[in-house]
Amino acid sequence: MGKSAGQAEAHRQAPGNQPKTARGEATRKAILGAAERVIGAKGYNDASIGHITSEAGVAQGTFYIYFKTKEEVFSELVLEMGRLVRHTIAEATQDIENRLDAEKAGLQAFLEFVRAHPDLYRIVQEALFVDPEAYHEYYVTFSAGYCSGLSAAEKAGQISKGDVETRAWALMGIARALGEQLIVFKSEKSIREIVDTAYDLIANGLKP
Amino acid sequence: MGKSAGQAEAHRQAPGNQPKTARGEATRKAILGAAERVIGAKGYNDASIGHITSEAGVAQGTFYIYFKTKEEVFSELVLEMGRLVRHTIAEATQDIENRLDAEKAGLQAFLEFVRAHPDLYRIVQEALFVDPEAYHEYYVTFSAGYCSGLSAAEKAGQISKGDVETRAWALMGIARALGEQLIVFKSEKSIREIVDTAYDLIANGLKP
DNA sequence: CATAAACATGAATACTGATTCATGTTTCAT
DNA sequence: ATGAAACATGAATCAGTATTCATGTTTATG
Prior knowledge:
Two copies of one chain form a homodimer. Chain A is built from nine helices and no strands. With 208 residues, chain A is an all-alpha fold. Chain A folds into two domains: 54 residues, Arc Repressor Mutant, subunit A; 139 residues, Orthogonal Bundle (Tetracycline Repressor, domain 2). Chains A and B meet through helix 5, helix 6, helix 7, helix 8 and helix 9 of A and helix 5, helix 6, helix 7, helix 8 and helix 9 of B. The structure holds a DNA duplex (30 and 30 nucleotides).
């Protein structure tokens, strides 16, 4: 059907333009990286195309060769962030049999990721206002994975019974809040300490 | 020293202008209420002063009699929200001796509040980008109260030992995520169900 | 090399929306 | 009642910035 369909990753809307040479590829990457830094630092609205292109070292018009609108780079950033986080956590937990251990390793990987990419983190938060659809996709996808993991663990008797969906949201909420404490509130605690405390809460609860 | 200092509530920066008659008071309230609805619905950036004043039924210039800038109404909304939430939770938990019971009642009150005021909820989220200082104050104040509550409970042997600060953030994270699930992701679960599941997690953890 | 496609430029366009201001109207104290 | 302060108006100002476009430059390819 028609022209060859480019890479394997298919999304909604046609992107502004896929680069067709190495030069184009590099420029597009430069713009995307600049957008990540600038939007992460100043927020979506204060990050002008001018800022982004000058950070990328290209002219203003060049932006529109690769992205249809300002919102489009933003969406792409959010999507990329989602893939990256899922990949990071999956990798950190892939050969851990026990769910509780996986929970701990996953939380640690997440917090380390967040500390390493504070910009991307803020971008996801801002997506709720700039691109609600992307925000939804981010969390829904995440939640779905979480739910099936919890179901399996429940069946295997590794964790107690309980509504998996609510539990998934609660656990995501813990991770998110601890990540936020780390980067927005600049906590100086070590990730190790945080994870140990959180794990104890997740595994055993507060009961004496 | 100088003129009488108005009401008891002192904040940073001088406000645009405190009204001095009943008429002014009413107008100011109308604008604040309109701002809550409009900003809550459209977000900070898409909510223009024109929208807000027309929703309030006053002329555009009237806005600036009571608020110095657009950001100032926003700040005020965030501050108000903080007081309201704390008040709601304090009231719901005031004569509960046991910390775990208080946790449950507090979560329930919070979720009910959030469901009743979805606009105010989104506004606090957006504060991270529009007015980081107000955002900080919101969560830091909250966290401080939480920490002292947990410390006391720990000393009284009502809950197990553990770093109170991390625990406080984790618990706030649970509440926030469940609130978000409720209004942003339009969950249809009853608050009762959610609270029961979350309470079990908080009290007993996931261990089988 | 030649030539078309891809890529790059940055000035010009177009529009939005916060804030100001000169001018009324209402309220209050005397 | 009357002058001053408080309140209200909405058109005009002013600035920022997303997007377009006419014009070059580079790259791939026969």
